[in-house]
């Protein structure tokens, strides 16, 4: 149905930029290795396990020699790796023939080696998984912490879906690389080394055959590697799209139904998922084609090996047992080499994911260079020729905004929607850096404050209320307020006129809210947010259309409570209803990012400007 596999819309084209540098492979490996460092002991346990495992593989090949040389009554029977050891340990003058001795000792040795091999396999696999899961856990937590510290602009640039998919999917891909790949590399890598060393030991000339095909294998591995990486990156970002579309449709399921968006969403999702599938198939194709090619090279090498080894010259110096052991070892080489070449795609997926994770981990956190700390600010706020653009070089959203809010006073911001009111108060809490001018709190520029200290001074209720999947109690006494006494939480809820509806809930304050305050009405959510701000008891109160979702009566009641709270603190209130504005000490009128007028209600009305116009429209902004 969807044959086109162009990247679906919504994919950020800029995302590919940072991934083009190919040189950094080793840097990524080394950096990943840095995460392994704290677990070095466990890591070495694992290596130790795999060395035992692969050594046993070789020794089992040597057992072949023991059996055959014993049967053939070869004089070389005591010179094999295993047979030599066993003879020197036990036989001496038992009076047994070589065959009789082999009959007893070979089964014992086989069982012993198998047990050792199994132990090595377990130790290697168990401990490497311990390391890998720890690395992934650490990476995931680091990425999440990074999100917690990321500047607001970061959230503007990335969709929620793509960020979630990084924490879940991309990190998981790194697990794949770290766990599976390391496991295979160590287990099979040691096997190859051991087997090859053994073959060199038995007959080095014959090994040249294998060395001759190795460049071909390396070539295939290198060519495929590039493709693997490209597809892995696309798979990753399309996973972000899949998550994004699902998120949107889940969050907005009512809109989807009410506005007939079903087909649209379904197609969008199908496209994103199809793109993911197509890229996965390309990866699978590259993966599946490289294995048989490499296998063919190995088969050719083995065939050549047999041809050479059956030549009279070579046969002369070989016992039957050595010959069998050599071929057994050579035959055993196929599986590890195949597995090692297959590990490519896993590693490339992991590297592509790690590259992306590291890119995000390396982004700057919110700037927090200030050192000024205040126990409790007086609350004088001065905006001085503030200029701001969300995107550098775009048109300014705020320009030359200057006014002062004296400590303990209330300033109302009034202006049409989009005039920059919310932006201005968000600048105060340093959600974005200023593009020009300054904002000072008690005469100190806000950038000079330690970020957490500055935010401690501000209790803000925003247009959009963020609630957590927690009890109401924990939603009000959130973060730095955790542990507040029940009385204080109840008092805050009372001020916010929230007590009535809280008490009607089955478990009162202990009622657990769903996803984003699910089950509460818009007005109820706002009242929880107001209660939270009241409980914070900060010297500065910012109310950004905090009562917009309330009916007149609730608003009126909250208004009275808020007036008590506002009395002793600096308040900036953005309100769309008259009552709040009228009583403010000063009203600042904004239009298109500029302050166009300021004064008291009476002064502004008398002047007959924008304020009077808005007033006569009943503030229906
Ligand atoms: N995160 C953002 N990225 C880019 N532009 C934004 C962002 N938020 C708001 N804007 C723009 O900034 C302007 C002011 O918005 P805002 O401060 O929300 O106005 P108000 O609160 O007065 O309605 C608007 O033109 C809006 O489109
Ligand atoms: Mg706003």
Report what the structure shows.
By secondary structure, the protein is an alpha/beta fold. The chain has two domains: 27-90 and 97-362, Up-down Bundle (ABC transporter transmembrane region fold), CATH 1.20.1560.10; 381-616, Rossmann fold, CATH 3.40.50. The protein has helices spanning 25-36, 40-71, 81-91, 98-149, 152-157, 160-202, 204-251, 253-258, 262-309, 312-316, 320-362, 421-428, 451-456, 472-476, 486-495, 499-504, 522-536, 552-566, 578-582, 601-607, 610-616, and strands spanning 381-388, 398-405, 410-415, 436-441, 444-445, 458-461, 540-544, 570-574, 586-591, 594-599. A six-stranded mixed sheet has the order 6-7-8-3-9-10, sandwiched between helices. The protein has a four-stranded antiparallel sheet with strand order 2-1-4-5, covered by helices on one side. β9 and β10 (594-599) form a beta hairpin. Bound molecules: adenosine-5'-diphosphate and magnesium ion. Residues 421-422, 463, 544 line the site of magnesium ion.
Keyword list:
single chain, 621 residues, alpha/beta, ABC transporter transmembrane region fold, Rossmann fold, 2 domains, six-stranded mixed beta sheet, four-stranded antiparallel beta sheet, 9% strand, elongated, binds adenosine-5'-diphosphate, binds magnesium ion
């Amino acid at each position: 149905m969807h044959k086109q596999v162009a990247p679906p819309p919504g994919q950020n084209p800029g995302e590919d930029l940072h991934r083009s540098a190919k040189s950094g492979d080793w840097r990524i490996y080394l950096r990943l290795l840095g995460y392994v460092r704290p677990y070095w002991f466990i890591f070495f346990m694992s290596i130790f396990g795999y060395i035992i495992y692969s050594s046993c593989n070789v020794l089992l090949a040597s057992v072949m020699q023991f059996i055959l040389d014993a049967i053939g009554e070869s004089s070389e029977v005591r010179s094999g790796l295993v047979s030599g050891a066993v003879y020197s340990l036990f036989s001496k003058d038992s009076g047994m023939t070589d065959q009789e001795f082999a009959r007893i000792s070979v089964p014992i040795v086989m069982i012993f080696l198998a047990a050792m091999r199994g132990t090595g396999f377990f130790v290697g696999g168990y401990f490497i998984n311990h390391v890998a899961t720890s690395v992934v856990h650490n990476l995931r937590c680091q990425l999440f912490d990074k999100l917690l510290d990321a500047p607001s602009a970061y959230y503007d640039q990335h969709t929620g879906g793509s960020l979630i998919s990084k924490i879940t999917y991309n990190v998981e891909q790194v697990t794949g690389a770290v766990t599976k790949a390391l496991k295979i590399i160590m287990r099979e890598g040691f096997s190859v080394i051991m087997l090859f060393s053994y073959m060199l030991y038995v007959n080095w000339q014959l090994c040249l055959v294998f060395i001759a095909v190795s460049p071909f294998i390396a070539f295939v591995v290198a060519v495929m590697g590039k493709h693997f990486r490209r597809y892995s990156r696309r798979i990753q970002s399309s996973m972000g799209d899949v998550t994004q579309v699902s998120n949107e449709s889940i969050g907005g399921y009512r809109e989807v139904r009410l506005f007939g968006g079903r087909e649209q969403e379904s197609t969008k999702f199908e496209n994103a998922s199809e793109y993911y599938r197509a890229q996965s198939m390309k990866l699978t194709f590259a993966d599946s084609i490289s294995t048989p090619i490499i296998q063919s090279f190995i088969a050719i090498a083995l065939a050549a090996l047999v041809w050479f080894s059956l030549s009279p010259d070579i046969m002369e110096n070989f016992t039957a047992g050595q010959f069998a052991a050599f071929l057994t070892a050579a035959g055993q080489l196929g599986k590890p080499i195949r597995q090692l070449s297959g590990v490519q795609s896993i590693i490339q997926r992991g590297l592509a994911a790690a590259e992306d994770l590291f890119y995000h981990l390396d982004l700057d956190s919110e700037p927090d260079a200030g050192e000024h700390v205040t126990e409790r600010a007086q609350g004088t706020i001065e905006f001085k020729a503030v200029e701001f653009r969300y995107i550098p070089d775009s048109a300014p959203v705020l320009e030359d905004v200057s006014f002062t809010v004296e400590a303990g006073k209330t300033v109302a911001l009034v202006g049409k929607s989009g005039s920059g009111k919310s932006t201005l108060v968000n600048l105060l809490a340093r959600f974005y850096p200023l593009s020009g001018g300054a904002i000072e709190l008690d005469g100190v520029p806000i950038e000079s404050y330690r970020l957490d200290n500055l935010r401690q001074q501000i209790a803000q209720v925003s247009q959009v209320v963020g609630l957590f999947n927690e009890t109401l109690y924990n939603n009000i006494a959130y973060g730095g307020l955790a542990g507040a006494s029940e009385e204080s939480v109840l008092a805050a809820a009372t001020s916010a006129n929230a007590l009535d509806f809280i008490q009607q809930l089955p478990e009162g304050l202990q009622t657990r809210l769903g996803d984003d305050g699910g089950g509460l009405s818009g007005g109820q959510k706002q009242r929880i947010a107001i209660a939270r701000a009241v409980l914070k008891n900060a010297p500065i109160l910012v109310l950004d259309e905090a009562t917009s979702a309330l009916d007149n009566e609730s608003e009126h009641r909250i208004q009275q409570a808020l007036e008590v709270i506002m009395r002793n603190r600096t308040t900036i209130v953005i309100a769309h209803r008259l009552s709040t504005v009228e009583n403010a000490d000063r009203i600042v009128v904004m239009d298109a990012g500029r302050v166009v007028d300021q004064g008291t209600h009476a002064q502004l009305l008398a002047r007959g400007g924008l304020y009077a116009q808005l007033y006569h429209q009943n503030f229906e902004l």
